[in-house]
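Posted in: Protein Modeling Q&A

I'm a second-year student putting together a small comparison for a lab meeting, and my supervisor asked me to include a predicted structure for C-type cytochrome. I've never done this before, so apologies if this is the wrong subforum. The sequence is pasted below exactly as I got it from our records. If anyone can share the structure token output, I'd also love a short note on what stands out.
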Amino acid sequence: MKQLVILALSSLLSFAASATEVPELGPQGDAAAGEAKAAVCAGCHGADGNSATGGFPKLAGQHAAYLATQLANFKSKERDNAMMYGFAVGLSDQDMLDLAAFYAAKKVAPGVAKAELAARGEQIYRFGDVERGVAACAACHGPQGKGIASANFPSLAGQWSEYTLAQLNTFKSGARQNAMMNGVAVNMRAADMEAVASYIEGLR
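Accepted answer (user: helix_wrangler)
Welcome! Here is the predicted structure, written out as tokens:
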């Protein structure tokens, strides 16, 4: 247990240091304007940012800066997704900020974790896995999965386990690039990814 705590604390300290490198937020979005622009997004992500299935992520309650960053990454193809590129390519910077503000103001619908996966999922989320070199998720995403807005660490609480698991697999394979998350996911076993994804869905 002592080793687990040390890993979690060291991860938190290293990630906190990186948070100081995040630039201050620029212009802010207009949630009212974003609501009108979000009509085209509703088919996949729901009218209020709560998607109906895990094939599409919930956007409600996500940090505005993170959402705007992801839209910019889709537009530049830094994050490769043909469907999202088709939507993002025509967005201006202000459009992205407005959409982000709209979804950030919404409340994420709570999810439910699978009882049989809860214990292992909580272990990985809160303490990581020292033997496999997996850092604690809570170090960046917080004990309740709310993330750290100032560091651009996303909120995870309530997210569909199907979506979270899919993203962990893309980080593990390198299909989605993020040095921090690639380093975490590459050492995770499939069963542990499934467990932590389920635990995250139950956070609120």
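A couple of things worth pointing out for your meeting: Residues 31-104 form a domain with the Cytochrome Bc1 Complex; Chain D, domain 2 fold (CATH 1.10.760.10). Confidence is low (pLDDT under 50) at residues 1-25.
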